[in-house]
Amino acid sequence: MSKVVRSLADLKPLAREMAAARLAAEVERERVAAAMRLADQERRVFELSVGPVTPLRATDRVIHDREQPAPEPRQREADERAVLLQALSDDIDVDTLLDTDETLSFRREGISVEVVRKLRRGHWALQAQLDLHGLRRDGAREALGLFIHDSARRGLRCVRVVHGKGHGSPGREPVLKGRVRRWLVQKNEVLAFVQARASDGGAGALMVLLSGTA
C-alpha cells in the first residue's frame, strides 16, 4: 500500500509541469493571435478609417503610354552660342562694305541696288524684331547672332534690329550702332540691310533682309 501512495505522490510534480506547459502554450497562442489581429488592422487602416466602400463599375478603357518629352540638346545649343559669339568680330573694317549713301546701307555681292530700294520702301513685311536696348556689348552680340540664326532657320525673310539712337549713352553716341553693322555683315544669312524708315525706328533701327528673299 505504501508503494502505491509513493507512486501517486511522484505523479503530482509531473501533473503540475503538464498544467504549466498547457498554460504557457495557451498564452503563446493568444499572443500570436493578438499580433495577427494587430497586423490585419494595420493593413486595413484605410478601410477601417473610411468605412464600407463600393467598388467602381468596370468600364472598357484604353491606357495609353505617356508621351515622353523630346530631349533638349542643351550641350549643342551651348556650343552653337559659343560659335556664334566667337564668330562675330568687332575688328572687321565694315566701312568698305557699306554703300556710301545717306544711311550706309549694305548689300551682299550679287544683290542688286533695286533690292535695297525695295527693302527701304518696306516691300517685304516685317516678321520679327530684336531690341538690343539695355544690353552690353557681349550680350548684344550673342543675342544678335542667335536672332539672325534662328530667324533664318525659321524661314523668316525680313526682320528688324533695334540698336538705339544712343541718347542714353555717354556722350550721346550710339554705342551699338556701328557694332551691329559690323556683326551683320559677317552673317552669311544677311543679304542686305538699310536704316529703318522714321515710322519703323529711323536711325535707331535696321531693316534686315535674310537669305532666300531676293
Automatic annotation (TrEMBL):
Domain Smr: 130-211
SUPFAM superfamilies: SMR domain-like
Family matches, as InterPro entries: Smr_dom, Smr_dom_sf
One of the Pfam families matching this protein, by short name: Smr
Top-level taxon of the source organism: Bacteria
Coiled coil (UniProt feature): none
Protein name: Smr/MutS family protein
